[in-house]
Amino acid sequence: MTRLEHYPPRLGRALATAFAAVLVAVTPHATTVQAEAAVPQAVPLAAAPIGFASVNALGQNGTTGGAAGRTVTATNAAQFLGYIDSLEPLVIQVAGRIEISSKQGVRPNKTIVGVGSSGHITGGGLDFYRSYNVIVRNLRFTAAEDDAVNVGQQSHHIWIDHNTFSGAVDGSIDVVRGADYVTVSWNHFDHADKSMLISHSDGAASTDVGHLKVTLHHNFFDHSRQRHPRIRFGEPVHVFNNYFLSNELYGVASTENAGAVVEGNYFENVPHPLISASGYADSGPGRAVQRNNILVNSGTPETAGTVVEPRTYYAYTVDAPAGVPAAVRAGAGAGKVTVAGLQPGAGG
């Protein structure tokens, strides 16, 4: 834990069918939501990612996971660990609570997806070491003894979508050691401590400069404490249409000459929405551009320098930030989605 972390300073488009008219009055630092309709319990999962996991690069045409392979179902740890270590493409359905330990390696060309609201990984996490083309979605991760998801060692084209994270001893998601082309979307970070780290160390320039291209969109940082994300070296890291609620230390921190584009987000009760020019803890300053964010009872975003625009890599649409809290509350996290083609009774 770094020095300052000891001391707190105290849908892509909004789901048009998920809520009716929301009347919003905006002042520079306050927003009042006057009416909000009920939302449905489940929405379809997107077939393909938005952002860096969609980019054709490094010999990979976007991120398709295990779509080319057979579908199997894991109901216990032995089955699950065998499937994620398999050399073949697989769609791995997770049915029920599976307890593992440490961080378990995931080989390329896998989709790991929870069945309904039952998919639950507890005690350990997933590790990506020179892996690629993997989708992780509709799962609940609890009580990981280290990281819940670690994307490292030149892994690329990883899509982490519609999961719920709580209780990890270290990070909920880390993207480190030259990893690239990652999208983190529609996840719920539920009272997490360290939500997301991009680059593990101030001394990692030799492996990380020119890599760590990550998109974060429509995530719910729900009373999570810090790292939403904390970035070193990566550029661009694109943070759009996320809901930041009561984050004790800070929202986004861009350090060590990283470049972040932070747009269309909704910050509520966040003392430091964006840190860049001042650096953070022992890390030197980074660069950051912010635009069209809503700030409610929150500090002023700190910007610095210029950043490579995400549009040079992919097309995207930014939803109106006033609708982000309703859309993200309705859609983010595990168990709030319908997954076409899942076979609850499928065997291994």
What do you see in this structure?
It is a single chain. The chain is mainly beta. Helix content is 6%, strand content 36%. The protein is built from three helices and 33 strands. The chain has helices spanning 77-84, 205-208, 324-331; strands spanning 24-27, 30-33, 43-44, 56-57, 60-61, 70-74, 90-94, 97-99, 103-105, 110-114, 120-122, 125-129, 132-137, 140-142, 149-152, 156-161, 164-166, 171-175, 180-185, 188-190, 194-198, 214-217, 220-222, 230-232, 237-240, 243-245, 252-255, 259-263, 266-268, 274-275, 287-291, 294-296, 337-338. The strands form six sheets. A ten-stranded parallel β-sheet has the order 6-7-10-13-16-19-22-25-28-31, covered by helices on one side. A nine-stranded parallel β-sheet has the order 8-11-14-17-20-23-26-29-32, covered by helices on one side. The longest helix is centred in the first third of the chain and has 8 residues, at 77-84. The radius of gyration is 19 Å and the shape is globular.
Q: Which short descriptors sum up this protein?
A:
mainly beta, about 350 residues, nine-stranded parallel sheet, ten-stranded parallel sheet, disordered N terminus, 3 helices
The helix/strand class is mainly beta
Helical segment count = 3
Number of strands: 33
Residues in β-strands, percent: 35-45%
Distance between the termini: 41 Å
Tell me, rounded to a whole number, the average pLDDT.
Answer: 88
Low-pLDDT ranges? 1-41
- Helix proportion range: under 10%
Oligomeric state of shown chains: single chain
